[in-house]
TrEMBL record:
Residues 10-87 form the von Hippel-Lindau disease tumour suppressor beta domain. It comes from Anopheles stephensi (Indo-Pakistan malaria mosquito). It comes from the Eukaryota. Belongs to the VHL family. Pfam families: VHL (PF01847). This is VHL domain-containing protein. SUPFAM superfamilies: VHL.
Length: 153
């Protein structure tokens, strides 16, 4: 995950404030769960079947993300593509959570254009990239499809 000038590198920072999370896959897809480690590298943590869940002991500064196993599409938690855990212990009240914080993995809300682009990509195999130019689509959409296809691999 390389950063541009406009965005900082997404990586785990420190391991000071604990968080206890329950990731629940609320989609009908198989979802891979990734922790973004200290080197900004995705580290596969678990694979969740539809409706499955996993318990994670993590830290507040540790980002997590989720991908559809088949199509590599990013799933969301709380309508965000990156999940940042909340502290288990509240320093203001002195109280800790009795239960794990549930983080429901869900399908991202997409525009009609995004839905169409994802559907086209899902129908194309890895060898069919040249077919994109033959679809009689505007060049801007073909370029976006090629870019998305290359980013998935």
């Amino acid at each position: 995950m390389a950063a541009t000038n406009a965005e900082p590198v997404l990586r785990s920072r420190n391991s000071e404030v604990r968080s206890f999370v329950l990731f629940r896959n609320t989609t009908e897809r198989v979802v891979d769960v990734y922790w973004v480690n200290y080197s900004a590298t995705l580290t596969h943590y678990s694979t969740l079947q539809p409706g499955a869940q996993c318990k994670v002991n993590t830290f507040v500064s540790h980002p997590w993300l989720f991908k559809d196993k088949r199509h590599e599409e990013r799933m969301h938690v709380r309508h965000q593509p990156i999940f940042m855990p909340e502290p288990w212990y509240n320093s203001f009240t002195g109280a800790g959570r009795l239960n794990r914080m549930e983080a429901r993995i869900h399908f991202p809300v997409r525009t009609l254009k995004e839905n169409c682009l994802w559907r086209i990509l899902a129908l194309l195999s890895a060898k069919e990239e040249s077919v994109l130019c033959e679809l009689e689509l505007p060049n801007v959409l073909v370029q976006e499809l090629v870019k998305r296809k290359r980013n998935r691999v």
